[in-house]
Specification:
390 residues; alpha+beta; Peroxisomal Thiolase, Chain A, domain 1; ten-stranded mixed β-sheet
Length: 390
């Protein structure tokens, strides 16, 4: 029995900053961002948008299509948690009007937790083949103004339906994974902005890739040349390119610039426009690959590398299923990205400094452009959400 991705839907905010605007404000050449890190835009969430509304909006098309009726497990992966106790997935469960017969928990391990959710969901479906699991990866990447990581900010969510006999991708059983306790990136409870040691994090990312690939290759017997495409965790697109070059060098596989473009470019297109989506990052890449590939990818094997600072890395793979294009939300994704509103630098800074109140008072938030759901306010220390659909 094959188990894997039955549906996949991606969502990002309606607002963005073009990195040439940020470059001008920071008095640097725009190519530092466009070429140096391979990013063009960064998604900026409105004050009434958070990981719950992002996640609910990503899963909303599945709700509309009746795809959530058999879901009995909801796993919400994020490193942008909103509560120390209650899972953000519980809020989404309510917004999506899902069945009460459903387990729901939140998962955390930096950008890796979405992949942990996928693997846990596969185990659930293996025991319950007639049921499905919903994994939501939802995050807001936020760094201090003027910091080295500022240009890699972004936001987005990916909703992934896991089932038996999947219509989009069957996940291979082999997997290589690696854990090591490092401090390359972290965000203490008392901070809203992450701390990062960029150069060190790049080194750990590569080391975890090589170690997890080694395990995967030993278990599967596959070589690097057995893959038709690759998707990597994408803190910025140049990181994915650098990682693949390192892996090719380690495996003594010569890869031309043209081959690199074929293997990676389609998976990087959305991320250039959204910025880092943390736990959803690699799955934004997978969505981009499936949506934008000119070639029919049916029966093609895709290598998948997920990395979470701190650190955990995992290399696994999947085979794209025949007829997968009929089950994508390609037009919806393209329309969303093409119809966002660009912010001026001052608008970006104003939104950045609009912090969610923490004094326990009563607040009603102004309405901006969001998806079908919005974060409407706070009352008696309780977050309140509003559905904008009938």
């Amino acid at each position: 029995m094959n188990i894997g991705i039955d549906k996949i839907s991606f969502y990002t905010s309606h607002y963005y900053v073009d990195l040439k605007t940020l470059a001008e404000a920071r008095s640097v050449d725009a190519d530092k961002y466009y070429v140096g890190i391979g990013q063009e835009k960064m998604g900026i969430p409105a004050p009434d948008e958070d990981v719950v509304t992002l996640g609910g909006s990503a899963a909303y098309p599945l709700m509309k299509d009746g795809e959530l009726d058999d879901v009995e497990l909801l796993l919400f992966a994020t490193e942008s948690g909103i509560d120390q106790s209650k899972s953000a997935g519980i809020y989404v469960h309510g917004l999506l009007e899902m069945s009460s017969r459903c387990r729901s928990v939140e998962l955390k391990q930096a950008c890796y937790s979405g992949t942990a959710g996928i693997q846990m969901a596969i185990g659930f479906v293996a025991r319950n083949p007639t049921k499905k699991a919903l994994v939501i990866c939802s995050d807001i990447a936020r760094y201090e103004l003027g910091s080295p990581g500022e240009a890699t900010q972004g936001c987005g969510s990916v909703a992934i339906l896991i089932s038996a006999n999947p219509r989009i991708m069957a996940i291979d059983p082999e997997s290589g994974y690696y854990t090591e306790d490092v401090m390359d990136f972290w965000r203490p409870n008392y901070r809203s902005e992450a701390l990062v040691d960029g150069k060190y994090s790049t080194m750990v990312y590569i080391h975890a890739l090589l170690e997890s690939w080694k395990q995967y290759a030993e278990l599967s017997g596959r070589a690097l040349t057995d893959f038709d495409r690759f998707c990597y965790h994408i803190p910025f697109t140049k990181m994915a390119e650098k990682a693949h070059k390192k892996l090719c060098r380690k495996c003594k596989v010569e890869t031309s610039a043209e081959q690199m473009q074929l293997l990676l470019d389609e998976s990087l297109r959305y991320s250039r426009k959204t910025g880092n989506c943390y736990s959803g990052s690699m799955y934004v890449g997978l969505t981009s690959l499936l949506d934008t590939a000119d070639e029919d990818l049916a029966n093609k094997r895709v290598g998948l590398y997920s990395y979470g600072s701190g650190c955990v890395g995992e290399f696994f793979s999947g085979v794209v299923q025949p007829g997968y294009r009929e089950h994508l939300y390609t037009d919806q994704h393209r329309n969303m990205l093409e119809n966002r509103s660009e912010l001026t630098y001052q608008q970006y800074e104003d939104i950045y400094n609009y912090g969610v109140p923490t004094d326990g008072g009563e607040y009603v938030f102004p309405q901006y452009k969001t998806g079908p759901f919005r974060f409407s306010g706070i009352s008696q220390h309780k977050r309140e959400y509003e559905s904008l659909v009938d």
